[in-house]
Amino acid sequence: MKNKQIEDILKNIKYAIDEDDYWKVTKETLILLLSYIEQLEKENKILRENAEHNDKVVDKVNWEINILKHNRDKAIDKLYCWGEVLNSEFQKEMLNILKGGSDD
């Protein structure tokens, strides 16, 4: 149903209510309005389902980010341990990368 149609239907109903002329609201107008309401309910259901799916995707991504951060932290700890033995440029460069820095 087009927006213009809906606007016209709502104007007619509002006018009838304002003028206390309820009898002027036709059966066809009410059927069109109910049809529009049903359409909105279907669209709302689809949007709700999409929102639930999106929430699940966001939760999964956040979970994976936490795993990556945990693995990064473990790698940094290992590099610090190796650094006590190696103390090399490679170790310093790897620590810088894992911490999110750069020499550039």
Stretches with pLDDT under 50, minimum 5 residues: none
The portion of residues forming beta strands comes to under 5%
Which geometry do the CA atoms define? Answer: rod-shaped
The beta-strand count equals 0
User: Could you tell me the mean pLDDT?
Assistant: 79
Query: Which percent bin holds the helix content?
Result: over 70%
Amino- and carboxy-terminal Cα gap: 58 Å
Radius of gyration: 31 Å
Largest sheet: none
Oligomer: single chain
Integer count of domains: 1
Give, in order, the helices and strands.
Answer: HHH
- Tally of individual helices: 3
| Protein structure class | mainly alpha
Task: Please explain how this structure is put together.
- This protein has helices at residues 3-18, 27-85, 89-98.
- With 104 residues, the chain is mostly helical.
List the helices and strands and how they pair.
Elements: H1 3-18, H2 27-85, H3 89-98
Helix pairs in contact: 1-2, 2-3
In short:
The chain has 104 residues and is mainly α.
Descriptors:
single chain, 104 residues, mainly alpha, rod-shaped
